[in-house]
């Protein structure tokens, strides 16, 4: 099966036409507890900058004040437990969900991931959510075609240990692509395997690669939280109505483009604020 490249020319039209904020979707990003809210805040900011109409951070009550002191355009909703998340998801306008960045690995986090998966909504599962899914067969079985899994190499090995055996070290991109394709087929979800070469595989078998090499080399992306921002970009594009694989591919291109725009000295929180310049370059 062939593998395609993610390029500027393969991007969908990311411009906004007429309409109001609800036409661009409402994303919900789940936050971890006190002292662990930065990752979700970066993801939420990325979702808003990439054009989601509204973004809400779902915070444990103990973290509410910490988050409130840091965000402005992003909204906050207290989510104490799985019941509260279920109640919030009664609102069908919440059309893109994100769980994982610094969410934690406790029972509350696992319960939230379970509710999110059983809602059937489009969602991005990153970081701790992936570790929780790797530990719990029922969560793995609840994955569906609206899910985008965004593992780095360590998380990929936790989720798919047998498949990961083939991608140890500096495996050629064709081997990495084949492994990601197998992971997508097994999980029934879109799988985005991160790295300087990022692979996006659809469960149906279509596979695309973004190569951050040559004039797209972006080594400054090797910085804490860069993956959390990528999760937010995908979530924002899901909110805007892109299909899961399309959102994953476009977000990957935008993420590297933001890093290239900023250049040396980049830290993760710089990435979302480079989007306006990247969008201007795209003549949006
Ligand atoms: N500002 C914030 O709030 C931030 C919060 N964050 C939050 O921290 C939490 C923990 O996330 P995490 O990814 O740091 O740790 P974990 O899940 O243990 O995985 C690391 C293990 O995997 C392995 N590994 C193999 N290949 C790898 C690869 N390509 N890239 C990376 N690792 C790779 C690696 O093994 P090694 O290569 O070192 O042998 C190592 O043993 C999570 O909630 C996250 O959201 C961070 O996002 C940072 C910013
Ligand atoms: N050398 C590199 N070149 C290009 N992209 C990179 C490089 N190193 C890391 N990245 C990208 O940065 C992000 C790192 O994500 P991740 O490993 O989840 O970190 P974190 O958990 O700290 O957010 C991924 O999108 C990955 O593709």
UniProtKB/TrEMBL annotation:
Primary enzyme class: lyase
Enzyme Commission code(s) on record: 4.2.1.136
Top-rank taxon: Bacteria
Zinc-finger as UniProt keyword: no
Keyword entries, A-Z: ATP-binding, Lyase, NAD, NADP, Nucleotide-binding
PROSITE patterns reported in the protein's UniProt record: YJEF_C_2, YJEF_C_3
Binding, (6S)-NADPHX: 39, 152, 228
Matching CDD domains: YXKO-related
InterPro entries with a match to the protein in the record: Carbohydrate_kinase_pred_CS, CARKD, Ribokinase-like
GO MF annotations in UniProt: ADP-dependent NAD(P)H-hydrate dehydratase activity; ATP binding; NAD(P)HX epimerase activity
Subunit structure of this chain's protein: Homotetramer.
HAMAP family: NADHX_dehydratase
PANTHER family reported for this sequence: ATP-DEPENDENT (S)-NAD(P)H-HYDRATE DEHYDRATASE, ATP-DEPENDENT (S)-NAD(P)H-HYDRATE DEHYDRATASE FAMILY MEMBER
Role, per record: Catalyzes the dehydration of the S-form of NAD(P)HX at the expense of ADP, which is converted to AMP. Together with NAD(P)HX epimerase, which catalyzes the epimerization of the S- and R-forms, the enzyme allows the repair of both epimers of NAD(P)HX, a damaged form of NAD(P)H that is a result of enzymatic or heat-dependent hydration.
Family, similarity comment: Belongs to the NnrD/CARKD family.
Protein name listed in UniProt: ADP-dependent (S)-NAD(P)H-hydrate dehydratase
